[in-house]
Amino acid sequence: MGAPVPVSVVALDPVLEAGIRATLLVRPELTVCEPADARVAVLTVDRLGPAELDTVRATRTQPHRPAVVLVAGALASGDVLHALAAGARGLLLRREADASRLAHAVLAAARDDCTLPPGLLEELLDQPEAPVRGSGGWSAGMLSERERSVLRLVADGHETAEIAQRLAYSPRTVTTVVHDITQRFRLRNRAHAVAYALRAGLL
Question: Is the pTM of this model over 0.70?
Answer without folding.
Answer: no
